[in-house]
Amino acid sequence: MSLRQYEYALAVAEEGSVTAAAELLHVAQPSVSQQIRGLERELGVELFSRTPTGLVPTAVGRAFLREAEIAVSASRRAKATARAGAEELTGELVVAAQMGFGARQLPGALGALRRRYPGLEATVFEEPSSAELDRLCRRGLLDLALMAACEQSPDDAHHLGGEEFVVVLGAGHRLLAADRVELHDLAGEPWVRFDRGSALDGVLLNVLRDNGLAPATAARVSQTPTAVRWAADGLGVTLVPASAVPHGYEHLVRPVSPGVSQPVIAVLRHRAGPAGTALLECLREQTWSEPASLSSAS
Length: 298
Prior knowledge:
8-stranded mixed sheet; 12 strands; two-stranded antiparallel ribbon; D-Maltodextrin-Binding Protein, domain 2; alpha/beta; 38% helix; 9 helices; Arc Repressor Mutant, subunit A
């Protein structure tokens, strides 16, 4: 396998056809088709399903493409580091955040970084699984990750502050009259939960367990903004990081008692380059809360 094959597969996934991918890459169409077929033969799997509307990645293909994107990004970073000095950073940063973490602070930090170094480009994604995020960090595939806990050395892990969790209630909910919601008052409420195995669902389960509450599930979602919107519509209550609440829903949010929070740790890639270090400094300049209590969210 080669990086060229990775780039061709990523282009096909983005464009949905070999013809469009070839135009994007400025190469002949047969070259793209040959590289994709060769890649599938070497892997022994089908990366794309041929549908009437175009090429769609298979389940295996989606998993492969994610790793391919990381590999291609790493290659670009290596080239940029070799070519650029610290005074004029260029290239690509790969950043991952535990879902819901730093939803306000990370864009501010990246904006500040871009103003300093306009040649930098950031690839950012949210990872629902803390175990997968830790695995990506240990493999050195990320320039920087925001997470609650890690197995990295103290030299690579940097505590930024805390992420407070809040409850989101439906419009007209009886508990909106309170400035702070006692967790035991949520007994019997249906919950909008997150995907099984996700870090956010783990926090919710721990909170309910520690407060003697049963997880009556109304629905499961993959994204924090969706959970907030569904809770606002009265489907059930939900528990999310405060920074992940979309604008316009703040009036439906209440802090909880006992308080629920998690630490926010920035993990730099081992032997991080100047771009990753610069992003860490921009993150330190953002406003972070301090954890009030970690007993429910550890």
